[in-house]
Amino acid sequence: MQVVITGGAGFLGQRLARSLLKQGSLPDRSGQLQAISKITLVDVAAAAGFDDARIEQVTGDITEHALLERVITPQTAAVFHLAAIVSGQAEADFDLGMRINLDASRLLLERCRSCANVPRVIFTSSVAVFGGVLPAVVQDDTALNPQSSYGTQKAIAELLLNDYSRKGFVDGRVLRLPTISVRPGKPNQAASSFASGIIREPLNGQPAVCPVAPDVRLWLLSPRKVIASLIHGYTLPAEAFGKSRTVNLPGISVTVADMVAALERVAGKQVAARVEWVHDPAIDRIISSWPGAWDASRATALGFTGDAGFDDIVRAYMEDDLPAA
Amino acid sequence: MQVVITGGAGFLGQRLARSLLKQGSLPDRSGQLQAISKITLVDVAAAAGFDDARIEQVTGDITEHALLERVITPQTAAVFHLAAIVSGQAEADFDLGMRINLDASRLLLERCRSCANVPRVIFTSSVAVFGGVLPAVVQDDTALNPQSSYGTQKAIAELLLNDYSRKGFVDGRVLRLPTISVRPGKPNQAASSFASGIIREPLNGQPAVCPVAPDVRLWLLSPRKVIASLIHGYTLPAEAFGKSRTVNLPGISVTVADMVAALERVAGKQVAARVEWVHDPAIDRIISSWPGAWDASRATALGFTGDAGFDDIVRAYMEDDLPAA
């Protein structure tokens, strides 16, 4: 059982790899558990801290056909395609976003198509495929109407993955991720970076800026549940998906004010006071175009689960990621 | 005022060119009427029968950058992008469909982006972007859920045109065409080819095969109204479109049985009896995934108009296209 993770040196990629190493096996096409013999992490740089013989690290440009040919082979059973240019950066550098979020996804699908045993491809999409005038709760069949280049590129890759799956070229699964909170590490160029920063930085004794109004509503999922969903998305048989390979994952719907209130309940007034409110119209425009909640009944019926509440998400971050005091 | 028509030697391209030559002018960005000095027809072959100095014919492959660079210039005010691989052919030859319906559209948008004065790009999309479980009447915001490679490629081009327009790289307008009936000429590889054939062939004294059940419902527009809609789509100011450049054009909703009944009313029992019913599951699967009606209130508010009824469409074909007896 060989697994490929693009964006494998990123936060989700590394965490997924560690979970798979720990779990040790995955079901094959016939549902039989098979030991994982190799996990290839593909990224622009190598991840540090892996000393497991099952881990292979390949660095390079995933828009290069030769690299894809090397890492995805007829022995590959699963491709977790996580590599992406994040929303803020894809808006600032249109061509880079097109190259990585669209061209690389298509090349990857083409490489999978050329393999005798087509792998399962688990692709992470985003709330950003929605936008414009939205219902209070977005449904699985709400129209794609992205208001950013990132959302456009993700929506296009969703369509490709569905058509490639319908044609039998790959066995694809598209998981639309809620905004992930709390991401560990440093802020990134995602428009939603603050949704982790306003919890993470205060817990690490640092000030944090919130660029959107307190009543802006977000749809959130914790890193723990993202990893569990990726693995569950691989495990489901193709037939379970019916006519659409795209699933809106369950999240929790909270306002930014709710998030800071939860931080105060879990970590105290002094910590929550480290959040500063400085409005940024460019970020607010992107974030406000995303849905604050969606109907996740299809995902739930398929066995995906979300978080219990934001207080739990804050505690999970403290357990998993906060450096020991 | 210079105009480019891709697929310019096709039936719609030629008819559009003749209408523009007759009309003689189009409004520029500021709304001032300008004489049309050049119409470039781009296609794989030249169209016959044009002897007007304003017509330039360029033959070649529109996925070639050099060709696009030659035909689209900073002097180009309008690009009618009609070139496409039709539904049946795109399903049979996936790679050809991707190359013409997706890659060529993207290259064309990139070429327009590189021009100092970005042209208006009028792109024809299709009912085929919809599919799966549909409401009785499809709305403007019904989810894209194509069940064919053609529909997938059109949906992707729609998304690109919207994002390129939002970024100011082009001034795009996406017109979702109902199924066109009655097309003149020969059957083609579109899954919907029969929707013209069952009227055209009997009127020309030939037998015709209907591959779908009599109760299959179609959403139809006549060639006359398509041409008027393309020109109107160019004429509207960008601001009229708001947050989406995509418009569902008005059609009429009729069953295949209704169409044959109209043929009988207009041309007689003997003519209508030339339709033979031979079910083709592959065509029925594609056609039945398309909506039989959609809400056209946005298009109507924007000034687009459809046909009065199918009897009129049959008569219009007889007037415009039927060889004199």
TrEMBL record, chains A, B:
Keywords: Carbohydrate metabolism, NADP, Oxidoreductase. Residues 3-207 form the NAD-dependent epimerase/dehydratase domain. SUPFAM superfamilies: NAD(P)-binding Rossmann-fold domains. Its EC number is 1.1.1.410. The keyword Transport does not apply. The keyword NADP applies. Coiled coil: none annotated. It comes from the Bacteria. Gene3D superfamilies: NAD(P)-binding Rossmann-like Domain, UDP-galactose 4-epimerase, domain 1. InterPro entries: DenD, Epimerase_deHydtase, NAD(P)-bd_dom_sf. GO terms for molecular function: oxidoreductase activity. CDD domains: Gne_like_SDR_e. NCBIfam families: ErythonDh (NF043036). PANTHER family: ADP-L-GLYCERO-D-MANNO-HEPTOSE-6-EPIMERASE, NUCLEOSIDE-DIPHOSPHATE-SUGAR EPIMERASE. This is D-erythronate dehydrogenase.
